[in-house]
């Protein structure tokens, strides 16, 4: 199968802002783990993976602003699984959805550039509209991703305040004396860097292209609404089956909720393999989120 490369150079932030306005704030994860394949009556094979992933994408991409495949669930099948991921990316784009590829990459120098080329350069069959990345080798290590995203109209979602219990060990740690803002939490520093990256797009009246990953199940007081007003979008995993609710989105994000993508996979994918039920679940999630902000 020949996959035409993505050719758009419009900034990701502007494209996402338009998608949110027309298609809603729900982000559907396409995560074909073994348990879901079994629940759909499929074998844990490449054939099962392909049936699951393409059925879900064909049902969800026409009704969602963003589709978020988790790359690991495809990579575990080797090159044939990655080929299925390429088809998911192409199918989602053909249906008009943006794709945020969940890869959480983070490295330095030429390796970081190679990852950026793989996921953000239109010449690559794995090119997505945005990718998740980790800043924990130092925010500056993401420079190849930032520059490649800017060159091709892509975006980033940078890990900031995730809701997994192990996250605070690093994300809530305080920066060392002698830094620009001594005693600042690492997560707050990440958000500050994002604000700087988004400044030009915000000044031009657009949503910035550089977003943060902030969990939809954070406790009260972990982050303020002001801290989250960094000019870019937020990817909020944990919505739905993991416990995050519409009320949590409102509580955590407040006035920035209109720029929040509430992400869920199991909650929606559990409605399959019926395509109509998958699409209906996504529409219901969009409807529930529509009243925020």
Could you outline the blueprint of secondary structure elements for this entry?
Elements: H1 12-23, E1 26-30, H2 34-39, H3 46-60, E2 66-69, H4 72-75, H5 79-94, E3 98-105, H6 109-120, E4 130-133, H7 143-152, E5 155-161, H8 168-171, H9 186-203, E6 210-214, E7 234-237, H10 246-253, E8 260-264, H11 266-269, H12 275-289
Parallel strand pairs: 1-2, 1-8, 2-3, 3-4, 4-5, 5-6, 6-7, 7-8
Helix pairs in contact: 3-5, 3-12, 6-7
Distance between the termini: 42 Å
- Total number of β-strand segments? 8
Structural class: alpha/beta
Approximate helicity band: 40-55%
Question: Mean pLDDT, nearest integer?
Answer: 93
Shape: globular
Q: In terms of per-residue confidence, which ranges show pLDDT below 50 for 5 or more consecutive residues?
A: 1-7
The largest sheet, given as strand count, sense and whether it forms a barrel, is:
8 strands, parallel, barrel
Can you count the helices?
12
The run of helices and strands is HEHHEHHEHEHEHHEEHEHH
The radius of gyration computed from the alpha-carbon positions, rounded to a whole number of angstroms, is: 18 Å
Strand content: 5-15%
Widest beta sheet: strand line-up: 1-2-3-4-5-6-7-8
Family: Belongs to the OMP decarboxylase family. Type 2 subfamily.
Pathway: Pyrimidine metabolism; UMP biosynthesis via de novo pathway; UMP from orotate: step 2/2
Keywords: Decarboxylase, Lyase, Pyrimidine biosynthesis
Organism: Nocardioides bruguierae
């Amino acid at each position: 199968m020949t996959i035409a490369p993505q050719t758009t150079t419009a900034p990701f932030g502007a494209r996402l802002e338009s998608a949110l306005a027309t298609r809603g704030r729900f982000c559907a994860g396409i995560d074909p783990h073994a348990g879901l394949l079994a629940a759909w009556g499929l074998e844990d094979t490449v054939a099962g993976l392909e049936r699951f992933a393409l059925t879900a994408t064909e049902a969800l991409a026409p009704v969602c602003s963003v589709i978020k495949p988790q790359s690991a669930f495809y990579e575990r099948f080797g090159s044939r699984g990655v080929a299925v991921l390429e088809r998911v990316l192409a199918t989602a784009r053909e249906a008009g959805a943006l794709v945020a590829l969940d890869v959480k990459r983070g490295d330095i120098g030429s390796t970081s550039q190679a990852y950026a080329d793989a996921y953000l350069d239109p010449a690559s069959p794995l090119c997505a509209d945005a990718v998740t990345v980790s800043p924990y080798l130092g925010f500056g290590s993401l420079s190849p991703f930032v520059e490649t995203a800017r060159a091709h109209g892509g975006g980033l979602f940078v890990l900031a305040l995730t809701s997994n219990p192990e996250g605070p060990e690093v994300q809530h740690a305080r920066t060392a004396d002698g830094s620009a803002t001594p005693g600042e939490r690492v997560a707050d520093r990440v958000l500050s860097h994002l604000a700087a990256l988004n400044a030009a797009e915000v000044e031009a009246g657009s949503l910035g292209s550089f977003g943060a990953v902030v969990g939809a199940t954070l406790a009260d007081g972990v982050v303020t609404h002001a801290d989250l007003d960094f000019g870019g979008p937020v990817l909020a995993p944990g919505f739905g089956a993991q416990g995050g609710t519409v009320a949590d989105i409102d509580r955590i994000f407040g006035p920035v909720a209109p720029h929040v993508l509430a992400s869920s996979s199991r909650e929606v994918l559990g409605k399959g393999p019926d395509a109509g039920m998958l699409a209906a679940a996504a529409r219901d999630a969009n409807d529930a989120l529509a009243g925020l902000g």
